[in-house]
Amino acid sequence: MKSVEELKAIREKALKEISIRDNENKIRIVVGMATCGIAAGAKSVMNAFAEELAKRNINNATVSMTGCIGICRLEPIAEVIGVDGEKTTYVKLDAEKARRIVAEHIVNQKPVVEYTIGEAEK
Amino acid sequence: MIYRSHVLVCNGTGCVSSKSPDLMAKMEELLVANGIENEVKIIKTGCFGLCEKGPILVIYPEGATYCNVSVDDIEEIVNEHLVKGRIVKRLLLGDKEAEDVSKSRDNVGFFAKQKRIALRNCGVINPENIEEYIAHDGYLALAKAVTEMTPAEVIAEITKSGLRGRGGAGFPVGRKWQFAAQEVSDQKYVCCNADEGDPGAFMDRSILEGDPHSVIEAMAIAGYAIGANQGYIYVRAEYPIAVERLNIAIKQAHEYGLLGKNIFNTDFSFNLELRLGAGAFVCGEETALMTSIEGNRGEPRTRPPFPAVKGLWGKPTLLNNVETYANIPVILLKGADWFSSIGTEKSKGTKVFAIGGKIHNTGLVEIPMGTTLREVVYDIGGGIPNGKKFKAAQTGGPSGGCIPADHLDIPIDYDNLLEIGSMMGSGGMIIMDEDTCMVDIAKFFLEFTVDESCGKCPPCRIGTKRMLEILDRITQGKGEEGDIEKLEALAESINKGALCGLGQTAPNPVLSTLKFFRDEYEAHVKDKKCPAGVCTALLNYVIIADKCKGCSLCARKCPVNAISGEVKKPYVIDQDKCIKCGVCMESCKFAAIEKK
Amino acid sequence: MSEFVTLTIDGKEVKAPKGATVLEAAKSAGIHIPTLCFLKDINEIGACRMCIVDVGARSFQAACAYPVSEGLNVITNSPKIRETRRVTLELILSNHDRECLTCVRSQNCELQKLAKELNVKDIRYEGENQEFPIDDLSPSIVRDPNKCVLCRRCVSVCNEVQSVGAIGVVDRGFNSTVSSPFNFALNDTPCVNCGQCIVVCPVGALYEKSSVEKVWDALANEDLHVVVQTAPAVRAALGEEFGYPIGTRVTGKMVAALKRLGFAKVFDTDTAADLTIMEEGTELVERIKNNGKLPLITSCSPGWIKFCEHNYPDMLDNLSSCKSPQNMFGAVLKSYYAEKMGIDPSKIFVVSVMPCTAKKFEAGRPELASTGYPDVDEVITTRELAQMIKEAGIDFMNLPDEQFDDPMGEATGAGVIFGATGGVMEAALRSVPYLLTGKDDENIDIKVVRGVEDFKEAELEVNGIKIKAAVVHGLGNARKLLDKIRSGEAEYHFIEVMACPGGCVNGGGQPIQPASVRNETDLRTERAKAIYEEDEAMTIRRSHQNPRVLKMYEEYFEKPGSEKSHKLLHTHYVARENYPEN
Predict the structure, then answer these.
(1) B143 touches chain A (CB under 8 A)
(2) Alpha carbons C556 and C564: distance in angstroms, whole number
(3) Å from B490 to nearest chain C CA?
(4) Which pLDDT does position C582 carry in this prediction?
(5) Any idea which architecture B130-339 has in CATH?
(6) Among B47-56, C95-104, C329-338, C346-355, which stretch is predicted with the lowest mean pLDDT?
(7) CB count, 10 Å around CB of B288?
(8) Which CATH architecture is the domain B540-595 placed in?
(9) Per-domain residue ranges for chain B?
(10) Which residues in chain C have their CB less than 8 angstroms from residue B455's CB?
C-alpha cells in the first residue's frame, strides 16, 4: 500500500460490492417475484435493476424481492420505496423499463409516471 | 460481479459446531439447482453474538435474520426467500410479523441494548476478505496514524479516550503505550494476548474469527506508536478457526502492503507473526505469555521489570489483549472524545461479555460501560429460564467473584465490580439461579485454578490445593468447625503471597461467595445441608408418604434396588443403598419424591 | 561508579546502588530477610515467596528480585508478613517428606533451619502429601522428589549454568515436580553427573549414590589390599565438614584419618596428575609438531567428557586420549605397583576420594579397565569420606598431620593445582617448554589462568612456536567456547575444560554449604586458595621433575606416549545418544 488514496480507492470499490447489506437511508426497489411475477419475466427485470444500479455506481438504492403483491395481471411489478417511506408502484415492467426507472426515478428523483400503476389502471 | 442478494452465514465456532458449514453446502447446491448461483452470494461471516439461537444467517438486501436454521430449512429459504422473495417468517429472529423484516430483531432485547464497537464487524463482513474490512473503514486509522500523526499524538489520543485494558486488570492503555514508547532500545515488540482462558469467555475468539484485521491494524498502529517493527499474536491452538483466519488476514495484509516494509510509503515497517499456545490458563498472564513465546515453559516471573521495560527476549514489549486492540482503530477514526462519551467516569467505551449459565439468551454481548447487571440479565439475557429466581452472576472468571441479587442494579464497570469483590476480568459472565449451590460454584472455580496453576510458587501450588481439599470436605458433609476460618486465612495468605496476579486472585471465588453467601457455607459445615440441593453427599431422596400412590415405578427404575414397598402403599428409599442418582424423582408421576 | 538511590527499610534510611535488590539493600543495612529458593547468581526468581516484603503494592513482593528505587518504602517485618511467610512455609512442609531424622541432609537442611527460624510449631494446613518413586539408577546421583521443595536451584544450575538440561519442571500446579524429560531415569538422560544440582539443593532431594558401605565392606575383607587415592581438591574442603573455615588445607589430617580408617596405603592422586601432564603435554607437543588435531582439549573432568560425548560428538578427536588422573592412578596401581609390590592385581581394591560425583560414573566405564580389572573399584566423595570419619569415631581436629605413603605418594605443586580451574593448564604450561626444548621457562606462576572468570586465555612462545591456550569452567561456558571453535570463530592449540564452575574445588562431591554461606562467600575462590597455598609450599612444582614419575617411566613405561603407556594410561570416547531410542 503506497498511499492513502490507494486505500480509499479499494474502499470505494469494496463498498459498492457490499452496499446491498446496508439498507439504512436507502431507496428500496422491491420486485414481485412470486410464481406470477417470475412467469411474467420478473427475473430479467430484477437483474436489469441490479445491473443498472451497479453500472451507475448507485449506492443509495437496493433491489430486493417480495412475494405476490396481489395484482397478478399487472406483473412484473416493482415498488420503489423512498427513504421517507413514500411508495411508487410500477407495473408491467421489462428490463428496458427497469433501466429507465433507475435513470429517472432513482438518479433524478423523477418518477416515470407512465409506468406507474395509476397510469396503467386509468 | 454484482449479486442481487447476499446471504451471510455465521461461521463463528459456535455456529460452526451447530453445523453452519452444512447449511452453506446445502444452499450452494440449491442455488445451482435453481440457476441463481450467479445472483446470490453466500458469505462466511463472524459471530452475531446470539449463539443460543445459532446457526444464524442473514439475507440482504432485506436484512432478514434467520435463526436456529437447520439443513432441512434451507430448501424453504431458497425457494421462498431467494427465488420468490417471500420471507420465511417462522425462522425470523424476534418479531416474526415485523413490517420491515430488517427490524425484526430490534425487539429482541439482546440486540437493542448493545453497542457494538469491538464487535462492529462481526457478523457484518467476511473476515477472510480484506476488502470488506477496508470497505468498513478498515486500515484508515493506520493510514491516518502513520501519515498524519506523530507517535506521541497517537498515544495522546488513546490516553485521552480513557480506554482501559480489556484483558482483566483494566490498566489504562495509553499509559501502557507511553511506558513502552519511552524506553530506548534497538528492538521493541508488540504482542497480542489471544490466550483467552476464562471458563466460558470467547469474545477474543469471536473477534479473531469475525474481524481479524481490526487486531492486525491496531497492532500496526501500536507498533508505530511505540517504535516497534515486529509483533506477535499469541493465540491458543484450540482456536483453529481463529488461527486460520488470522493467517489468511496476515497474508492479505502483506499482499496489500498494510504489513511489511514502508507502509503507506513511510519509514514505518511492521511484521506480524502468530505464536500458538497450548492452552495453559497461566499463559494469559503477560510474563508467562512472553516466556512461552520465547520457547520456555509458560510461567510468570516477578515484576518489575515490567514488559514495557524488559519483555520479550529482554526487549521493551507492549502487550494488550484482542478486545483492547479491536477498539483502537475506531478510537483513532472517530476520536477520543467520541469514545470517552460512552461509558462511566472511569470506565470508557464498551465491554464484551460472554453470558452463560442459567439464562435465556446465552451468547456474546457488547454493552456500554455502566449498563446495569439487571439490564444484562433481564433485558439482554432474557431473564432466567423456568421461572427461577436470579441468585448471582459470576464475573471475572477464576479471578473474579459472585455478584448477588442485592447488587443487580450495579452499573457494570471496572471499579464497581472490584468494589464488591469481583472484577471485570476478560468478560465471562455466568448467571446462576436459585438451584445453584455457591459452595459448589466456588469449588468449581477453585478446581479450575488448581488444575491450571503453573506450580512455580507454593501459595498457589499448594495453597489453592489445600483450599480445594477443604471445600471438597465441606461439600462431602465432612466439614469441620474452623474450616471456614481456615479457608479465609489461606485465601489471605495466597492473595498476599503468590507470585503472579492469577495466584493472588485465585481465592476470590471463595472469598466473594463467603462474603455474600456465608450462611450456605455454614449450612454445609454445621447442619450438613446443602440449601440449594446440589451437593449430593448432603441430600437424601425421600418419598412423601402422603403423595405416594404406590405405583412401584420408582422401585423399578432404581438402578441399585434401593426402593421397596408394597403396591398401592407408600414406598420407602433405603438411604444406605441410595446412590442419589435422582432417577426416582424424575420418574415419579405424582411428585412424591423430594430432595432434602 | 554506580549510582545510588535512597530508600527506607523498616523505617531506616538505606543507600543502595541502583539495580540492587531489596534483599541486598536490606542485607547491607543489617536487616535479615529469610530466603529459601534464592541462590546468588544462580537462582534469583522469587519463586518460594519466603523473602516477601511490603513495598506498598497490592500484594507482597519478593525481596530477592524486587529492585530498589528512589524513595521506596519497604517493610520487612510485620504481623501480616510474618504470618504470610509462615503459612507459605507450612504449605511447603505439608507436602514434604518430613522423615528428617533419617534424611541425608539432617542438620544441614535449609528448610529445617527456616522452619525453626520462622517458628513453625505445627502445620495447620495438612492435606495430600504426594509420593514419588526415588530415582537411584544413576551411578552418581539419587533424586528423591518427595523431599523436593521446587525451589528450582537444581533446574537453574543444570540449565543455565551447565547448559546440560537434564532436569526441568514437569507437569503443573500441585503435580509439578522436578524431573528428567519424559520422566526418564537420570541415567537415561544427557546428565553428566557433575552433581552441581546436589550442592545447590537446600534439602535432601538430591544426593550422591553412596559407596560408603561398599568401602566399609572392602576394608573389612582381609583378602583385599585396599588402597586409597585422594584428589587434590578434597584436602581443600574436607575440613569444612569438621568445622574448619572454608579454604582450610587439611592434607595431613586427611591422610591420618584415611590411615585410621584402615586403608593399606594412602596415595595422592596428584602423582597421577603429574603423570597426566607428562602424557598430555607430550600429546600436545606431538599434535603441534605433526599437524595433529587441534585444539587439544583436556580430559581430566569426567562431567566434561560425558558432556562432550553427548553434545559435541564431532569433536571427540579433540579430546586428549589421556585417562583422567584418577584412572591413570588406578591403572598404575594394578600394573606397575602390583608388580613392584608383588601383589595379585585382583586383590588390589582401589578406592578414590573425589570432590566429584561424575568420578563414580567414570570409574564404571567399561573401557577403563586396561589391566583386565577396573582401574578404580569404588569412588567416594569428600562428603562420604567425612561421613566415614565421623562414623568411625575419629576425632578429626585432633589428628596429627601425616604423610602420603610411598612408593606412590610423591607429587608436585603442579599436581595439586589440578583441583582448581586453570590448574591443569598452568601445570601443563610449566612443563611444555621442557617437553619441547628440554629447558624450563623460568616463569612458574602463570597467574593469568587462575581465578574464577568465565573465560581465561594464555599465550606461550617457545622456540618460535606459539601456543594459544584457553581455560573455561562450568559447562555453559564450555558450550560457548566450543560453539565458537566449531564455527571457526575462535582458534586455540590447547584448552582446559572443567565441568564444575571453579573446577574441582567446587565439585559436586564437595561439602554442601547452605545458601546463607554461598551468597556471601565465593567457595571457588576460597577453596582454591588452599590449593595454591599447597603448591607454593612444595619444593618441586613442575610435573616433569617429579622423581617418582620419572622413576615410573624408567622402570616401567619407558617414555610418555610409549606403547605401554598408551595401553594403560590412555583411553577413547564414544558418541552418546541423549535419550534411549525406545
Answers:
(1) yes
(2) 8
(3) 7
(4) 64
(5) 3-Layer(aba) Sandwich (3.40)
(6) B47-56
(7) 25
(8) 2-Layer Sandwich (3.30)
(9) 5-107, 130-339, 350-433, 438-526, 540-595
(10) 150, 169, 171-176
Look up the CATH number of domain B438-526.
1.20.1440.230
Best mutation site among B39, B99, B134 for testing chain A: the one with the most A CBs within 10 Å?
A: B134
Chain-centroid distance of CA C201 in Å reads 14
Q: Where are the domains of chain A?
A: 23-120
Q: What was the ipTM of the complex prediction?
A: 0.94
pLDDT of C363 > 90? The answer is yes
| Strand runs labelled E in C253-347 | 265-268, 296-297
Is residue C1 scored above 60 in pLDDT?
Answer: no
Lowest-pLDDT range of A73-77, C81-85, C106-110, C450-454 = A73-77
Q: CATH classification of C4-77 is 3.30.70.100, yes or no?
A: no
Q: Which CATH number does A23-120 carry?
A: 3.40.30.10
B131 CB within 8 Å of a chain A CB: yes
pLDDT in tens, C146-184: 999 999 999 999 999 999 999 999 999 999 999 999 999
- The CATH classification number of B350-433 equals 3.10.20.600
Q: Please give the single-letter amino acid code of residue B146.
A: V
| Residue in chain A nearest B260 by alpha carbon | A1
Helix axes B508-526, B438-452, angle to 10 degrees: 130
Q: Is the peptide bond before B404 cis (omega within 30 degrees of 0)?
A: no
The CATH code that applies to domain C93-208 is 3.30.70.20
Would you identify the CATH topology of the domain B5-107? Glutaredoxin (3.40.30)
Q: What is the C-alpha end-to-end distance of chain A, expressed in Å?
A: 59
Q: Where are the domains of chain C?
A: 4-77, 93-208, 212-569
Question: How many Å from the N-terminal Cα to the C-terminal Cα in chain C?
Answer: 57
Phi, psi values for residue C538, rounded to 5°: -80, 145
Please give the model's pTM, rounded to 2 decimal places.
Answer: 0.91
In the block, which residue shows the cell 443487580?
B408
Q: Which whole number is the average pLDDT over A3-7? A: 92
pLDDT in the model for residue A23: 67
In chain B, what residues touch C150 (CB-CB under 8 Å)? 455-456, 458, 461
* Residue in A2, A4, A47 nearest the CB of B257: A2
Are B476 and B536 a contacting pair, CB within 8 Å? Answer: no
CA distance C142 to B101: 75
> If you average pLDDT over residues C354-368, what whole number do you get?
97
CATH number given to C212-569: 3.40.50.1780
**Is the bond leading into B316 cis (omega within 30 degrees of zero)?**
no
Residue C488 has pLDDT above 70, yes or no: yes
Could you say which DSSP state residue C531 is in?
A: H
Q: CB–CB of A1 and B124 under 8 A?
A: no
A33 vs B4: CB contact, 8 Å cut-off? no
- DSSP strand pairing (C52-53 vs B593-595): unpaired
Q: Please name the helix (run of DSSP H) or strand (run of DSSP E) that holds residue B226, with its range, or none.
A: helix B212-226
First to last CA, chain B: 67
C492-530 confidence digits (pLDDT tens): 999 999 999 999 999 999 999 999 999 999 999 999 999
% of chain C surpassing 70 pLDDT: 99
Whether B146 and B263 have beta carbons less than 8 Å apart is answered as: yes
pLDDT digits (tens, 9 = 90+) for C306-323: 999 999 999 999 999 999
The DSSP string of C370-411 is: TTSS-S-SEEEEHHHHHHHHHHTT--GGGPPP-PPPTTT---
Mean pLDDT value across residues C61-69: 97
Residues of chain B with pLDDT under 50: none
Domains B5-107 and B350-433 alike in fold: no
Q: Which residues of B touch C (CB under 8 A)?
A: 280, 282, 297, 299, 301-302, 304-305, 450-466, 469, 486, 489-490, 492-493, 495-499, 504
